Amino acid sequence: MKMVSDFLVVGSGLAGLTYALQLAPFGSVSLLTKRTRMDANSSWAQGGIAGVLSNEDSFELHVRDTLIAGAGLCHTDAVDILVHEGPERIQELIALGAGFNMETDEEGQSVLSLGREGGHSRNRIVHTADYTGWECERTLLEAVRGCPSIQVYEHYFVTDLMIADQAHGPVCIGVEALHGETGEAVQLLARATLLATGGCGQVYKHTTNPPVATADGVAMAWRAGATIANMEFIQFHPTTLFHPKARAFLITEALRGEGARLVHADGSAFMEAYHPLKELAPRDIVARAIESEIKRRGVECVYLDATGLDSEMLASHFPTVMERCRSVDIDITRDYIPIVPAQHYQCGGVVTDLNGSTSIARLYAAGEVACTGVHGANRLASNSLLEAMVFGKRAAIHALKCADTEPSITGLREFERDANPTTTVESQAIWNEVRDIMQRSAGIVRSTDSMLAATESVNSNLSKLNVHGGTIETYEARNAIQTAQLILKSAIMRHESRGLHFTVDYPESVESELHDTIIENQLHR
């Protein structure tokens, strides 16, 4: 089956929804999501959205904090755009009905309640208790429901981008997809296509990401010939629940912002030995400190101590954390929370310019799948939802101006067809082995020898997959494993430690490595 629309969006997180809403008045928009419309990384974001919204803050301070966290690799022009355009995107969410936490100021006026997280020098985090991402998703989806020009297609898994090699270079003219329930193959053509597919959490054994985060966008763009950058910078969230009866669940950084401390089982704190900001140091420093303490003491985890905080505040500000912990018999007002670091966010991805354009004409990327240059070597807390909205809107504005003709199928690339695709059970086994390899060899602390051995093993596992004509799980396995290759290749290329990338072979940052890790595609499939 073949369908045509003016604009196509792959992914239903904040970036994709922002893009769709911006273009809705100007043409038909098809939005594809491989599960339901609420299944997106954005929905899982607890902490909030960073923005300059008080007189005690300034654009200069938000820029400075972002650049410091990014360890020298942030693109200053992208950061300036993020910080200066961000408050307007937040106000648009509020106008659409987002219910952010409010408080009463000294003059008795109701104002936004602004929190602080690691790396921020001012209180600037807009939040809805500890489920901000869900509230933002809810708000934008309600707006989408009111737009007859936006058609949301649930349970459509995009297998590959449709690329036409034309006189002026490769052009994206749409996507090939499978319906997740019927298995029907579909081609969707459009004047412009946005990748808003989220991150790569399922490349790793332990992750805070939902099951849908299988690195589909990075892998598809890579296979199509798009440029990829900075995939070595994988952020591990320092504090995720460690419990045999619960999956890795993020314990929001905002809890540390309110005063929760990192301790051992005996109550002894340790962050002061690692950074003057202690629990509010940048995430890479906190994550490495926790890993170091776990190894030094030979324990399985450390603990987050919120027992000294006001119980009513905990109940009102962190209901999700309280409920999840309570489900495994942990009362955070009285008990320490056992935590370990887990994969959380990819700072690299598909390279874009300031308008979301990739190296392939009419293909855009926004959100976690994109490498805009904002995050550099380490994302500042709560900049991700902001980036998704800011660059999702910029991509839409550019697409409206530049994708003004119907797509042409001249020079369309053909896809391989495998006679004997790998079964779901076989692909899951292969994928799980790669997850284990990545957790061991491309985690918080790395070594060249380990990553070289991991590369050989990952390549071997990928060679066992026959994908085309197979199940969606097999396609997902391919995407995750190909992205694992990119992470390892990027990490091996960087001969230093910077931000989220720490290798024992090159433990210092060096001036000669102060550049993005660019990987140009050889057009393999």
Concise description?
This protein is α/β, with parallel strands linked by helices and 525 residues long. It has 13 helices and 20 strands.
Detailed description of the structure:
With 525 residues, the protein is an alpha/beta fold. The chain is built from 13 helices and 20 strands. Helix content is 33%, strand content 19%. Helix 5 packs across helix 13 (472-493).
The total count of helices amounts to 13
Distance between the termini: 23 Å
For the record, what CATH class of the largest domain applies? Alpha Beta
Question: What structural class do you assign from the helix and strand content?
Answer: alpha/beta
Average pLDDT across residues? 93
Report the helical percentage.
25-40%
The backbone outline, from C-alpha atoms, is: globular
- What oligomeric state do the depicted chains represent? single chain
The radius of gyration computed from the alpha-carbon positions, rounded to a whole number of angstroms, is 22 Å
> Tell me about the biggest sheet?
7 strands, mixed
- In CATH terms, what is the fold-level topology of the largest domain? FAD/NAD(P)-binding domain
Residue stretches low in confidence (pLDDT < 50, at least 5 long) are none
- For the record, the count of structural domains works out to 3
Question: What is the CATH architecture assignment of the largest domain?
Answer: 3-Layer(bba) Sandwich
- The CATH homologous superfamily of the largest domain is termed FAD/NAD(P)-binding domain
Number of strands: 20
Percent in strands: 15-25%
